[in-house]
Amino acid sequence: MTKTIVGVIFGGASSEYEISLKSACSVLENLDKDKYDVIKIGLTREGQWLRYYGKIEKIMDNTWYLDNNCTKIILSPNMGDREIIEIKDNTLISRKIDIMFPVLHGKNGEDGAIQGIFEVSGIPYVGCNVASSAICMDKDYAHIIVENGGIRVPKSLVIHSKINMEEIDDFINDVGLPIYVKPANEGSSIGITKANSKSELIKGIEEAYKYDSKVVLEENIDGFEVGCAVMGNDELVVGTVDEIEIPGGFFDYVEKYTIIESKIHLPARIDKELSEKIKETAKSIYRALGCTGLARIDMFLDKNNNIIFNEANTMPGFTTGSRFPNMLLHSGIKYKDILDRLIELGLGGQK
């Protein structure tokens, strides 16, 4: 049987570099070696592309690029080639690629940038296309589209390069405190703060500006967060709805990846009817945003059981302990089967 050649990409010039390494290790460990010929491609923090020949353990501890197990590579820009080109001892060695699996989180990996490179090179890839990736990454644009689709979103105020105190005062008077301050284009709660006063709000805006020139202020939703793992192109599969219980009130970066105080309930502590309504809403959001392949759709459920869109993650965490695979696992789909299906979807030309 001819194996499918899969390029698994990890790392990246992103604030979520370390998370990508963990996710990629799980993917690499679980891809069926009888079906796939796997090529490991690491992107350094500086954006250098390297083919990695070493052990997975060195990816996990972030020492993969420190020894002699790497060679520089480029992608052939010729659409018909579907090749990576290794640069070794002043010699160019081409290698065919059937599909890319970009296990990259955040900027330059989840925002349409690398998807555009694949499109130009004519290489199929796992996940959402350029436009959908870019829209989902931008919290402002994603909310505009979803709201136009008839689904409620939090009230918000977008700030660009200049702080307008009059606008901010009006927003505080409208929605009250606390208010969440978010970089428009970041993931994993990086740069997000919860402001309980006007002074904290201003400090939060300054913190968010470190990550993006566009900042979103959002009202606090009195309720809790639920999530749906969605997979597919035309026909969609939705995993079991989960729920995040946050005693501290904020699911920040540290809490997301340590779960010290928070607790993830799978399934969510809601009745079947509400669970099905959340799943259907997730499908509607997925389609409205043009998602293909996969996405984790995060929503709020307020005290009156109203569903409010939070965000869409087009390459969510992919460790065996991450929410996306576990929601599908709970609904009866094994991790290996998730990977198989995503590769099938990518090869099916969802673009």
Give the helices and strands, then pairings.
Blueprint: E1 4-11, H1 17-30, E2 36-43, E3 49-52, H2 56-60, E4 70-75, E5 83-88, E6 91-96, E7 99-102, H3 113-121, H4 130-137, H5 139-148, E8 156-159, H6 165-175, E9 179-183, E10 193-195, H7 198-208, E11 215-219, E12 223-232, E13 236-238, E14 242-245, H8 253-258, E15 263-265, H9 272-288, E16 293-302, E17 307-313, H10 323-330, H11 335-347
Parallel strand pairs: 1-2, 1-7
Antiparallel strand pairs: 2-3, 3-4, 4-5, 5-6, 8-11, 9-10, 9-11, 12-13, 12-14, 12-16, 14-15, 16-17
Describe the structure.
- The structure is a single chain.
- Helices cover 32% and strands 27% of the residues.
- By secondary structure, it is of the alpha+beta class.
- The chain has a 7-stranded mixed β-sheet with strand order 6-5-4-3-2-1-7. Strands 12, 13, 14, 15, 16 and 17 form a 6-stranded antiparallel β-sheet that branches.
